[in-house]
Amino acid sequence: MSLCESDSPTQQDYTRVNREVIDLLEQIAGAGSVVVGDDLVAGYACDEMPVADYHMPEVVVKPGDTVAVGRILQLASQRRIPVTPRGSGTGVCGGCVPLYGGILLSLELMDRIMEIDEDNFVAVVEPAVTLANLNTALESHGLYYPVYPGESNASIGGTVATNAGGMKAVKHGVTRNHVMGLEAALPTGAVIDTGGKFVKSSTGYDLTQLLIGSEGTLAVITKIILRLGIPPKHMEVLFIPFEGLDDAVGAVPLILKEGSLPAGIEFMERDIIGIVEEDTGKEVPHHDYAAFLMVILEGQTEADIHEQAGRIEKVCLDNGAAGVLVPPGAASRRRLIEMRESFYPTIKRSGPIEVADVVVPRSRIPEFVKQARSTGERHGVPVISYGHAGDGNVHVHLLGKDLDPSEWRRKRPVVMEEIYRLGVALGGVISGEHGLGYEKKGY
Amino acid sequence: MSLCESDSPTQQDYTRVNREVIDLLEQIAGAGSVVVGDDLVAGYACDEMPVADYHMPEVVVKPGDTVAVGRILQLASQRRIPVTPRGSGTGVCGGCVPLYGGILLSLELMDRIMEIDEDNFVAVVEPAVTLANLNTALESHGLYYPVYPGESNASIGGTVATNAGGMKAVKHGVTRNHVMGLEAALPTGAVIDTGGKFVKSSTGYDLTQLLIGSEGTLAVITKIILRLGIPPKHMEVLFIPFEGLDDAVGAVPLILKEGSLPAGIEFMERDIIGIVEEDTGKEVPHHDYAAFLMVILEGQTEADIHEQAGRIEKVCLDNGAAGVLVPPGAASRRRLIEMRESFYPTIKRSGPIEVADVVVPRSRIPEFVKQARSTGERHGVPVISYGHAGDGNVHVHLLGKDLDPSEWRRKRPVVMEEIYRLGVALGGVISGEHGLGYEKKGY
């Protein structure tokens, strides 16, 4: 989000970037790190939002360190030029899109892993380090970063700015639970440090937590202190068909009450399974059932995994499951996870879509999913939902492929608004892990 | 803390409570809930701070609901009367002591458990519900609240206001990780709701997290949505003597790297063991060793506990432990935990003391403990430390029993300041779980 966007100013409130500003930016960041020209900055005009919307920055600056970030912000504040910070651009809500032009502050050069502290299970990273790069670097240290938002090319700075969640939040929590401290540059150019290499603190307001999820509207994050964990030695995936979503979601608290703590519990329905089958040409086992849970187990021993799986099987069979499918080996286990991860790209390939990322109390999932679907039906827009049954985070997709473009443009915001209202009415919020960006601001 | 204290006003900046204000308070909260008179309000003049310091409120008000809390705050803001919210008064830093007189806002009547939601593992409570009362109520639901700050009579509102931690933070985290939402009254009287019955949210600034640990300086918390867990079916405690603190603390990352996640890992040295032995007249096994770890294991099966204990034993014996003591039964296990819990009350009984609650990165514990001790020696003040090895939270105690009172009064703040500086120099902060209260404000 633009730093100055909170009171929804218009383009006219801002100053344009002129030659003098570009010279000053070059003095700060080095001539090679300042990019102008429509063809060169075009790659920074959108993110992975399903309904792509292009906003060109006037200039792209790629500072190499915190001091430069602070000086750029100070300059922009003095000249009233909007600034949009950007990580790796894998967001889906337009959070890094320079809606008001101005300076696109790309943190891509700040991609160093500054420290891996094996004694304290801490990594200190610059914002553009990706989840994939961090976990690769951690391997030889016997450590890992357990937050798994599904997009391993996401920059860690971006996951902090949006408080990214993901599939494994049931056990490991969200980004917020793993950030121990930050360095950030304020709009004035001042640099602050928050937190440190410790979990506990009762010393003043928690500015770390205030900055997490603030989507760049308060400060630009320039360094992140992350809490690491020990990678599980064993894992298993259970695929569990049910006659209906009520039974499937109803089994979740019972699974947890048995004392198992799966890394993730996903739910899906027949509709999305059918779309994946059509896309891949491969049949998903038990595909005739109405609803499914996918339970991801992690453990340090095989015995522990077996024991957990046995308890979950019993609970599910006692509560309406048609069976519990355990993939016969690592390859089919991987295929199951990949099937789940393919949902979004497969739907995206199907034609124009729109995505909502609502969170409701876990027990309200079936109600929300059914009402979202019938909202779509009422307007003639197919709606497909799936998501994280363990934490109530539902990804709702509107499919536009069978609508003509003007009808789609007209109906899309109407259905989205109704779905958001529905989520809030059921005790939820409109974004669980994607952030608001500018795309959801109106809601 | 007083709501208006942030810029350190003096008593003269405030208005006194007069008859008219008392009448208005009675209209808001009911006549029976407004208390005046030195003998009646004296119980609200201090907390459990080791160096007791009495500050009398002018009036004690005990509102019964959120609306009344809001109206009291509004009245106080209009009349410029300081307000100090108070839970159960079990804090140790003076956070609930009415330093500037005025209104003591006791939340003691707001002690209802409003909801226990078995499907979503959520409890909604008023602030004066104690940890003990909540866990008793949760028993029949097969749920529990895992944060364990050691004082089960603490009000939940107080643990939220201070972000209380405790012994089991290694596995379960601190209060901050278990609060999903809040209702709070602002100084204007307006009531806000934050968060909800969900773990994930990427929807705007996280006001829940901002209020947690703010010690009543931003708002008065009137309702708390808590995330619950499943109580462990089995537990074990390991008591592990080492030749020195370096070895003991050095074993902690190795234990965790083996993939065990104990609920708590405590460290202690011979000095505190000696004091406890003297106090109880009972010998602690292996008491000749220099340092000890106490590892608290939780699990859903006995097999899991055994397996964890076996791995920890191996790691500790490979890294300088003299042995691993497993208590022979539930009674001796309980005695071990009680011994650890008796440290603070035993030290408190020994004479005048002072306590610091510093957090340093886990690996800096030995360095911090040694330097804190030698700081004390240099000033002739005995210093004893113990604490949470798993999270770097060290409780440092200054013992005043052998100093004459004037010497103690003179040296105490000097040694405390040096110890706080030391903690910060080692990358830490001055409070890990107690909060600042007014007692640490100067530091």
Write up what this structure looks like.
Chain A is α+β, with helices and mostly antiparallel strands. Helices cover about 35% and strands about 20% of the residues of chain A. In chain A, strands 10-12-11-14-15-13 form a 6-stranded antiparallel beta sheet, with helices on both faces. In chain A, strands 5-6-9-7-8 form a 5-stranded antiparallel beta sheet. The first copy, chain A, has a 4-stranded mixed beta sheet with strand order 1-2-4-3. In chain A, a hairpin with a 5-residue loop joins strand 7 (about 180-185) and strand 8 (about 190-195). In chain A, helix 1 (about 20-30) runs antiparallel to helix 3 (about 65-80), helix 8 (about 245-255) crosses helix 10 and helix 13 runs antiparallel to helix 14. Chain A is globular, with a radius of gyration of 23 Å.
